[in-house]
Structure formats: structure tokens, C-alpha cells
Amino acid sequence: MTVTTVQLGESRQRQLAAAPASVTGDGVSKAFRLPHQRYSTLKERALHPFASSTYETFEALSDVSFEIKRGEFYGIVGRNGSGKSTLLKCMAGIYRIDAGELGLTGRLSPFIELGVGFNPDLTARDNVIVNAIMLGLSRREARRRFDDIIAFAELEEFVDLKLKNYSSGMSVRLGFSVAIQVDADILLVDEVLAVGDASFQRKCYDEFGRLREAGKTIVFVTHDMGAIERFCDRALLLEKGTVLEIGEPDYVSRRYSEVNFGHLPGPVVHGRARPREARVLSAWTEDDRGERILTTLQGQRCRVCMEVEFLEDVAEPVFTVVLRNDVRHVIFSPSSAVHPRVGRFRRGERASVRLSFDNWLAPSRYMLTPTVATWDPEYRVIDHREDLASLIVEAPHRTGAAADLPTELEIERL
Predict the structure, then answer these.
(1) Domains of the chain and CATH, by start
(2) Predicted TM-score of the model (pTM)
């Protein structure tokens, strides 16, 4: 009997619906006092003893309620300052909540700040043992898992080097490798994978997949909507400390784009804004066999894809996918504009768009922004989804260039 992906997804949703709650929040609120006069030294306080001691109150979280099932991969998204990290730190016990109730069932492992507790004057060998014990392993268990920790971090050659001589990426790899060895039931992950090369990010995502299959409860804070849609069962969208949406990852991803970038306004016609004409539903990457992929090797055939729904009649739409690297530079922008015209799409129609190319991008992690535009009579964007998907490119060599185009070598001795 063949089991389809849809059936597997439905089976997982039924299992999660029947599972008990692992993390619950009921009316969680947290505020911080922001003093008008800040003192950085004792001398400043002595010189200005009568300075104003007034302060403002910043509501980081206000009446936040949610329920995360045991074994659920749960995403938390929102703009900078929306309260995502504050909520995660409340779950971890770093912050005490001011109002409401917050409950966790199971052993907790926070990936909030990897490497906290590392001593820069100690070697990686000593830091691994100390940090593993701090996270709950016995000394014997920490020593037994030491080789696996170092191997995952790919730091065998640097195990006796002091941490103060490590790069930031090496320290993150070591911290993540220690953290995943803790036999926790609940894992809190706060954008810790933003640092590190593409190869290590792929290993981390593979590890997330393994933890998900093992039934671990994972609470994941990120700005990467591609990761939210790929891994999460549900997601929560925060805005100014309040819950804006809780629901399916693709729906929350669209709402995040609307909040973060706003609806793309069309031109005003007779004093009224033009109605929304198209909506990008999803984006992904495929190999030359049509299999969806998150990583690919340099030199292989690759496709960037999107699904679009037309809300109005649109003549000759232009489909484009912008690829940005880790430092947000636009590296490649495949588009239907250089191909024959695609015709007219009627209201209610959907289109699956694929743009194929030989991948000679430099090894890195690329964020994909799909865009739909039209000419009427000038070029006009009618919808886009910022950083909707991601692609990790791997290669045996790094040249430092933005792309590594194939070349032919000829040498003639003179």
C-alpha cells in the first residue's frame, strides 16, 4: 500500500490533536521599566544623586495565550521588537512573567544563547565537559558523548585550542553540538542558526528533522518563513507583544509578510485603490527530477518554483524570483520576462511556475523572494513574498566570488 505525503500529514495532525499539552500560556504578560536617566558608573550616580528616577513602562508581552502539543514543531514569528525572544526567555525561566500562567511539562533545553557558560580561557575539550554538565548530563555521560559532540561540530583539529581563539562560527557550532546531546523533551530555539556556514546550517536543519521525528517538542523563533513552512506544524504571529494569528504555517507566513512589508498598494483609479490582483501562495526549490530540496550541490540543475492564485484577470504577468545571499545582496533573479509571453490568466485561476537553471552560485544560504508583476502600461508589482523560501548551495571549494561559472583552461608555452 502506498502512503502519500498528504496522508502522512493528516496522520501527524491527528496524533498532535490527541497529544497532551507540553507548553501552555494563559494571559502571559511581561513589562520592562525603561528609566529616563541611565547610570553606567557609580561615579555618575554620586555626581547626580537627585537626577530624575522616573521611568517608562514597555509592555513586551500583553495577554499572550497559546497551547503547544507534545511532539509539535511550533514556530513563533514577528517583527523585531514584537516580543518573540521575550516569550521564549519567559518559557526558559530567564524572565519572570508579571501576569498570567505559563506551564511546561518535560525536561527543557534552551538554544537561546549558544555557548553561554563557555570559558574563553579553557580549551574546547574542557568547555564541552563543563557545559554538558551544566545542561544536565552526568560527568560520565558527558565524557561518553564527547567524541560525538566534537564530530558534529567538525572541530576535531581544534579540540585543544582555547575558545578565545575560535571564530564566532566555530563557537556556535560547538554550542549547538553540546545542546543537542541533552536528552530534553522541549527545545527552545531562538534564531541561533543565523551564524554559521551553509554546510553547518544544513546539518542543523537535518538535526531538526531528526528531533521532529523523535517526537520532541520544539519551539522555534525565526525570521525565515521558508523554515517555518518546511518544519512547523503550527505558528504564532506576534505584533507589539500581542497575538495576531495562530494557525497553519503557510497562512501565518502570509500574514507575517503583510505585517512586515504591508500590502503592496496598487495605483489609485478614480480615487480608489486597485483591488489585489494576485497572491503568491508558496515557493520552493526542486532538483531536475522534480523533488523538493532544501540543499543542492553546485553545478547541478535546479528549479525555483512558486504557486500563484489570480484574484482578478491579469494579462501577461511576469514571474520573478529574487535570490539574496547571507549579506542580503541580490545574486540572481530568474524571471519569465526573458521568455515568450505567458498569456492571460482569469480570475480564480492558479499557476505553478518553474524557472530552471544550472546552479553555479557560490556556496551559501540564499533566501528566495517570489514576485508577480504586470505591464499595464508600465511595470508594476502586484504581489511578492519576502524571504518565503531558502536554498543552501554546497561546493567542494570556495573562491569568495558571488558565482563560480564553469571555465575551460588553455595554456600555451611560449
Answers:
(1) 11-37+54-257 (3.40.50.300), 275-394 (2.70.50.60)
(2) 0.69
